[in-house]
Amino acid sequence: MTKSSQGLFFFPPHLPHQTDKPIVSVKGVSLIYSNGPALENIHFDVVVGERLAVIGPNGAGKSTLFKIIAGVLPPTEGRVEVYGNEPGKHICIAYVPQRSQVDWSFPVSVADVVMMGRIGKIGIFRRPTRKDWEIVYQALETVQLQDYAKRQIRQLSGGQQQRVFIARALAQEAELILMDEPFTGLDFPARQTILNILDILKEKHVTVLVALHDLKTAAEHFDRILLLNHRLIAIGQPSEVLIPSHLLYAYGGQLSLIPAEEGTWAMEDTCCEEGEHSHA
Ligand SMILES: Nc1ncnc2c1ncn2[C@@H]1O[C@H](COP(=O)(O)OP(=O)(O)OP(=O)(O)O)[C@@H](O)[C@H]1O
């Protein structure tokens, strides 16, 4: 158990500090669904403790990539290695799904959802110990939802539900967390809470991949950005990736680009029809 400035927090004591050692290696991954290719020949590495933003237009393949890295979807070609092994064999990976992919009507309490993160450690036939419950409540405290533990998850707001799923990943003591569009539909304070949680994870050297649409957030809060549209268009520092030629290639020629901070570019915020994402 370690103590952070944000309160007590449980993490495996052996978690390595940031090094150049890849935690994830994506090697020539392609995925073809029945209606066509979602990913084509993707190669990249992520090092321990890194925070990588995965951006790209709707349907670019971000969720598909995360499911392959999490080991829940086998690629058609290529492979993913996590510490040199198949991803499905690793308890240390947590996938935080898009809110729209979850059935929120299920009658289950917030604490029970977070406890699901412990199942890999406890086993399905054993009862959670007092320490497991302590870990669950510490995770809820980290996402500032300790007062909501006994509520039904369907009674929470969208931003709170997202934080419950992040707490589940924390309770799992994951070393690699994949978050699929955690900011979508959240107001400014809720986004800020998630950014604060990302900072706590950084402090703990947890590797985090986040799929998102907001280029400004990607530029300001991530070590590197991966720009995807079925193929990997660019990966690197924000100032290397968020340049007009890459963005026009990924998003098409109808974009209105504006200069942003530190040599990066963003899209002018001209949308949104209901259900569309804001890119700027
Ligand atoms: N189960 C599936 N069966 C068939 N096609 C699928 C399936 N899941 C996704 N696709 C298709 O694969 C492509 C990539 O989808 P994916 O959800 O990975 O993109 P995304 O970048 O996460 O999109 P968004 O930003 O809209 O969430 C899309 O064309 C989508 O329609």
Automatic annotation (TrEMBL):
InterPro entries: AAA+_ATPase, ABC_transporter-like_ATP-bd, ABC_transporter-like_CS, Metal_Ion_Import_ABC, P-loop_NTPase. The keyword Cell wall biogenesis/degradation does not apply. It comes from the Bacteria. The keyword Cytoplasm does not apply. Pfam families: ABC_tran (PF00005). CDD domains: ABC_Metallic_Cations. One of its GO terms (molecular function) is ATP binding. Residues 24-255 form the ABC transporter domain. Keywords: ATP-binding, Nucleotide-binding, Transport. Belongs to the ABC transporter superfamily. This is ABC transporter ATP-binding protein. The lineage of its organism: Bacteria, Bacillati, Chloroflexota, Anaerolineae, Anaerolineales.
